[in-house]
Write a sequence for this structure.
């Protein structure tokens, strides 16, 4: 009855995949298909009869048969392999008695089709998954499947316990996976690193960056040697043996997992930009570096696009965007953005239980730039931002080999959450081993800081413990108890005695640019303008602002309008100097320091 309903007038071709668990099922299924004989080609008819004879002659166990029904008709159901899958679900709309016949083999059929899929990481918890096929949510062994492809042919799922069943209560590694047909158009357009991660094999297109490439190039310059020093713990088989004092914990990632996280692929659409902007050894002198993941038509992607636009409008330097998601928009290309290099990498495995934001440190390592500035997707740059590259190169040297963070607009303290505070602050009012004000996770770095970045990422990935210091006054600290990238940047800076901090060049919000736009051309005064709020220890008179970037640019349309407003303002005359402190604009940090010698931040 089912086959007669499906296979009526019209022409189509459908492949039915059947799992046969025994001769009885075999005869039942193929016998029911005998009604197709008048509608099948002679070759297919003969094949069907042979299969039936085999069933009768000898029981078959776990055989997979593919039967082509050709030159048959279709009903208004628009049958495809996906539609056949749906027939096997309990909610299939088929009220007739034939449903019970179908149900005897529906689950195996669905299982067979699912077995052909490649399940790839699609989105972490609280993120959105966009997939052209089935999506499953949960953890290995505990999956909830969602097959709700909409009219636009996409299955959109918010991967959250607020929207989906909590199949693994208390497990923070829950995530969504997308079922991808190997060789499909979607598979060819997606992040190649995810295909490698899911299939366990390398693609024909070899990675642009890998452990092998980093090691092979380590003698090409001091920057390359620094990168190998930074990444050898993730790459070298004998690293742990040679560094036995760095004890891993139970939450450590395997060497194979860490090695895979050192792979990245330049998007083929941007190979021309890559070859032009990077030298033959794969390095660029300077670049902004961004990392993101999001559905192609989602808010986060649009925020990233506005960031890229701002770099092309107001900077002469390239921007390297690391994509840790599934797919990027099809209209991204070199003609649109001649200074963009798009690089794909796999996200940190969900079962590792690490924050997505630790991909920021990976991007800093894998970008292979000698001088870099991290930009989050909710930022945009403004005229003058390129000056920060030169200042970075002056401040981060062999003698001060660590990234520098800008001061945060919040003065965080032990009153805030975080197990790490006990190591640096014996009491709420005594933070004697905290060496800077809390910094915002928008660091700048040079190649001299690469070993520092690798060292702290390693301590997290290997679940290492910082030993007690100061006769126990600084208690031990498990590095995986430092939950986010910003926490780790601050802890690492204090642990290694860092004292440098940028003035607030990542302004708290786009509206901070209103004071710059409202200033009279040629004026150096800004009546009523405020500084970033101060604190009693580091900045009693407030923190200076530098109009190089804006943070919290979470509305892409608003960001677009601010970029336009800045460009329109430039047409009316030069903008005021970019540094603002105590109601006055300054052209350089040295000029500001000459007027206010006690200010602690640098710019």
């Amino acid at each position: 009855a089912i086959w007669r309903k499906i296979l009526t007038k019209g022409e189509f071709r459908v492949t039915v995949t059947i799992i046969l668990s025994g001769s009885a099922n075999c005869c039942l299924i193929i016998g029911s298909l005998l009604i197709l004989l008048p509608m099948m080609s002679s070759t297919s008819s003969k094949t069907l009869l042979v299969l039936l004879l085999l069933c009768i002659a000898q029981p078959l166990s776990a055989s997979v048969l593919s039967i082509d029904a050709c030159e048959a008709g279709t009903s208004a159901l628009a049958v495809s392999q996906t539609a056949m899958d749906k027939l096997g679900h309990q909610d299939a709309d088929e009220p007739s008695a034939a449903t019970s016949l179908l149900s005897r083999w529906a689950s195996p059929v669905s299982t067979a089709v699912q077995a052909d899929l490649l399940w790839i990481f699609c989105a972490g918890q609280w993120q959105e998954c966009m997939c052209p096929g089935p999506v499953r949510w949960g953890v290995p062994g505990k999956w909830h499947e969602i097959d709700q492809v909409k009219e636009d042919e996409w299955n959109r799922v918010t991967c959250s316990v607020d929207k989906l069943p909590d199949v693994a209560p208390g497990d923070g590694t829950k995530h969504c996976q997308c079922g991808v047909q190997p060789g499909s158009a979607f598979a060819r357009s997606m992040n190649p690193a995810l295909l490698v991660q899911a299939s366990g094999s390398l693609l024909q297109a070899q990675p642009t960056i890998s452990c092998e490439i980093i090691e092979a190039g380590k003698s090409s310059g001091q920057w390359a040697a620094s990168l190998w020093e930074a990444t050898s713990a993730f790459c070298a088989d004998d690293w742990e043996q040679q560094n036995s004092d760095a004890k891993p914990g139970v939450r450590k990632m395997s060497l194979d997992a860490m090695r895979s996280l050192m792979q990245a692929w330049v998007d083929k659409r941007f190979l021309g930009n890559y070859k032009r902007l990077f030298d033959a050894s794969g390095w660029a002198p300077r670049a902004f570096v961004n990392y993101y993941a999001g559905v192609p038509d989602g808010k986060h992607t649009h925020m990233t696009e506005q960031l890229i636009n701002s770099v092309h409008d107001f900077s002469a330097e390239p921007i390297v965007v690391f994509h840790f998601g599934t797919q990027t928009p099809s209209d991204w290309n070199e003609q649109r953005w001649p200074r963009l290099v798009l690089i794909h990498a796999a996200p940190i495995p969900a079962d590792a239980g690490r924050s997505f934001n630790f991909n920021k440190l990976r991007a800093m390592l894998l970008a292979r730039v000698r001088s870099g500035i991290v930009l989050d997707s909710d930022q945009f740059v403004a005229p003058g931002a390129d000056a920060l590259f030169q200042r970075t190169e002056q401040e981060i040297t062999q003698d001060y080999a660590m990234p520098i963070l800008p001061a945060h607009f919040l003065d965080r303290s032990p009153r805030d959450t975080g197990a790490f505070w006990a190591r640096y602050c014996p009491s709420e009012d005594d933070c004697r081993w905290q060496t800077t004000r809390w910094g915002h996770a928008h660091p700048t770095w040079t190649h001299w800081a690469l070993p520092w970045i690798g060292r702290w990422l390693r301590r997290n990935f290997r679940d290492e413990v910082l030993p007690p210091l100061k006769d126990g006054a600084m208690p031990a600290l498990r590095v995986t108890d430092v939950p986010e990238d910003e926490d780790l940047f601050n802890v690492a800076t204090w642990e290694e005695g860092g004292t440098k901090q940028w003035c607030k060049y990542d302004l708290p919000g786009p509206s901070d640019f209103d004071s710059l736009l409202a200033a009279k051309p040629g004026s150096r005064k800004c009546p009523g303008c405020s500084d970033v709020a101060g604190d009693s220890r580091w900045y009693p008179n407030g923190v200076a602002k530098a109009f190089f970037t804006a943070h919290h640019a979470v509305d892409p349309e608003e960001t677009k309008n601010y970029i336009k407003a800045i460009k329109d303002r430039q047409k009316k005359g030069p903008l005021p100097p970019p540094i603002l402190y105590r109601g006055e604009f300054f052209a350089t940090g040295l000029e500001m320091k000459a007027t206010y010698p006690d200010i602690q931040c640098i710019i």
